[in-house]
Design brief:
The complex is a heterodimer of chains A (about 260) and B (about 375). By secondary structure, chain A is mainly α. Chain A contains twelve helices and no strands. By secondary structure, chain B is an alpha+beta fold. In chain B, helix 3 packs across helix 4 and helix 4 crosses helix 5. Classes of the chains: A mainly alpha (about 260), B alpha+beta (about 375).
């Protein structure tokens, strides 16, 4: 293959410089604790709670985004309505907005005297300063990932296919389930993975709305900052390294799943 | 099953795609809808399938009024130009789709479905390819899978939209022949859309020539070819010469000639256009006063045919003549030679008829598909 050596060389060099070396630094620093020390940090109650909150909330947010993002993408692809371009631009706002702005806005909305928060408070639902608030923030920042990955694929699903299914006697729900869904599924997995990854790493918008009570609404990235502020560098990198490994394993699994789905298409 | 179409109307916004179509299709017939793009042929096909809701008129399958039936209820086999195969399904699952989506009560059991799919695979000569995905098939194979899939539901009628449009010339020819024999074997009432006159004339029992939302002519290959009923059909099935003339008291006088020609049947009185094909013009001697005099401005030999471009003295128009195999003993025509020609077969149409082109809403730069898309949004 002509050009393989220089391009592969460049890719590996670039990847190493930008991604792998900084990440290796995390592991190097964390390794200073030794295995037992590392284990002790990771299995401490507060760290475990933070990790499961971060990953759990991110997973829920990604699922919500997968469902509602697909619906949004469907509407944008299939229907014309006044102000479509405007709404289209709104979708991308969470991409561009400084996360702190998103956090402050959401907190103001969902706190007990905010527009939505006050209504929900009547129903006995508390959003701000609870894990629920974290999910709200993560859903907010993850939505465009699903919409923007599913939308082009949905656009590609030819009307011919739906019409063919209809002439063959398929009811509408059968067409959606058997014809459209399988075509869109791989891109939905990608959107889910991106939304999930973004939510796991999200910091700025979450810490405003989370309340950050240890063991309840304290996310792992915040715990890392706290440890850094306490000059517990090794502890901080230990949590960081754990997040890295978990994230990598999850994304790898999703990628493999996707490759498997693609091969069948 | 026979099909009756009565007064079918369809608009896309201001574009009048079907202007009151009446058509009867006999059971077991193989019918071609022929016309240029924008003529409404695909719209008519989709209207029969129920894919386009009608603005007026009626579609009947035998005794059943299908006008109000949904696409699903119509049970038509529809083959799309771009095949529209389900990419994530194997050939087998594609063909079985129409059986698998039936309500539980009507769905055949797995064994029956298996048997049926295998029969169809044999019928379309794709035995052994059932585990393939559409991406692993050639264009011709995809088309045959699409056909098998449509046949699986035992449709009332088989509808094909430009079935060979996306295939190369060689595969096209083979598939055409094969479709013809398949039709003979299965006997399904079949309607296909094409813009290729050769395809329509070769394949179909009857041809429906369409133009701008109306039917110009319906007939067998011979009828359409030998007696085109409108100038459009003449133009669409070849490149006729148009000679201005007059009809007076039943006799035809070509502009520039001094003697009249006979007119067959009822000819319109007054100014007419004489439509005659290049091969229907005869070279005659000086004594024939009904002929036109011209000068050869172009000669071109293709195989056994000699084509002459003749500039008429009377009008200065250049007409085209096709002569059979130039015999070495006969006169060799040269550019600049004088020549006298007379039409041996021709049709007359009154001159200066208003055409549908004057009506609003027709934008020749838009295809019907574009009109369809526009009206959706």
């Amino acid at each position: 293959m002509p050009g393989l050596t220089p391009t592969l060389g460049f890719t590996l060099f670039y990847l190493g410089l930008i991604v792998l070396i900084p990440l290796a630094g995390v592991f190097f620093k964390a390794s200073g604790l030794g295995f037992a020390g590392l284990w002790k940090v990771i299995t401490s109650e507060r760290v475990l709670a933070a990790l499961s909150l971060s990953f759990g909330a991110a997973a829920i947010a990604a699922v919500l985004n997968a469902v509602f993002g697909t619906i949004v993408a469907w509407v944008f692809v299939r229907y014309e309505f006044p102000g479509k371009r405007l709404f289209d631009a709104f979708i991308d706002l969470p991409f561009a907005l400084p996360t702190a702005v998103a956090g402050i806005a959401l907190t103001a909305l969902y706190s007990e005297n905010g527009w939505i928060g006050s209504v929900l408070a009547h129903a006995g639902i508390k959003v701000a300063y609870t894990p629920l608030g974290i999910i709200v923030a993560m859903t907010f920042i993850g939505l465009p990932f699903v919409v923007r990955t599913v939308e082009p694929v949905l656009r590609e699903v030819e009307r011919d296919l739906e019409e063919a299914a209809a002439t063959l006697g398929a009811r509408r729900w059968q067409t959606v389930l058997r014809v459209i869904a399988p075509a869109v599924f791989p891109s939905l997995v990608t959107g889910f993975a991106l939304s999930f990854a973004r939510a796991v790493g999200e910091y700025g918008s979450v810490i405003f709305i989370a309340g950050n009570f240890p063991m309840v609404s304290e996310i792992a990235p915040l715990l890392i900052i706290i440890k850094l502020e306490e000059f517990d560098y090794k502890g901080a990198t230990a949590v960081a390294a754990t997040m890295l490994v978990l994230s990598f394993l999850l994304l790898l699994t999703i990628n493999l799943l996707q490759a498997w789905v693609r091969r069948r298409v | 099953m026979d099909i009756q179409i009565r007064g079918v109307q369809k608009h896309y916004g201001s574009f009048h795609a079907l202007r009151g179509i009446d058509l009867d299709i006999a059971s077991g017939e193989l019918l071609a809808l022929l016309g240029p793009s924008g003529s409404g042929k695909t719209t008519l096909l989709r209207a029969i399938a129920g894919l386009e809701p009608l603005d007026g008129g009626q579609v009947k399958f035998g005794d059943i009024d299908a006008t109000g039936l949904s696409v699903q209820e119509r049970k038509v086999g529809f083959v799309f130009q771009q095949y529209a195969l389900f990419k994530h399904m194997t050939v087998f699952d594609n063909i079985a789709f129409g059986l698998n989506v039936r309500p539980k009560k009507e769905r055949p059991d797995t064994v029956t479905i298996n048997k049926r799919v295998r029969e169809l695979l044999e019928l379309v000569q794709l035995g052994g390819l059932e585990k393939r995905y559409p991406a692993q098939l050639s264009g011709g194979q995809k088309q045959r899978v699409a056909l098998a899939r449509a046949l699986a539901i035992e449709p009332r009628v088989l509808l094909l939209d430009e079935p060979f449009g996306a295939l190369d010339a060689k595969v096209r020819k083979d598939l055409r022949r094969w479709l013809r024999s398949l039709h003979r074997e299965t006997g399904y009432t079949t309607i296909f859309v094409t813009h290729d006159q050769e395809e329509a004339l070769e394949l179909a029992d009857r041809v429906v020539v369409m133009n701008r939302g109306v039917i110009e002519q319906v007939g067998t290959t011979d009828e359409v070819w030998d007696a085109p009923s409108t100038p459009f059909v003449y133009d669409f099935l070849g490149t006729p010469n148009v000679l201005p003339a007059r009809v007076e008291r039943g006799a035809l006088l070509l502009n520039g000639a001094t003697a009249t020609l006979a007119t067959a049947g009822a000819a319109p009185e007054g100014p007419v256009n004489v439509y005659t094909r290049p091969n229907e013009l005869r070279v005659v001697g000086d004594d024939d006063a009904s002929a036109l005099t011209g000068k050869i401005v172009e000669t071109q030999r293709t195989g056994l045919l000699l084509r002459l471009g003749v500039k008429l003295l009377s009008s200065g128009d250049v007409i085209e003549i096709e002569l059979p195999h130039p015999d070495p003993d006969v006169q060799r025509w040269q550019i600049g030679d004088g020549i006298r020609v007379r039409p041996s077969r021709y049709s007359l149409f009154p001159r200066a008829v208003a055409t549908a082109a004057d009506e609003s809403g027709y934008d020749p730069t838009l295809t019907v598909t574009e009109h369809r898309e526009r009206s959706r949004t």
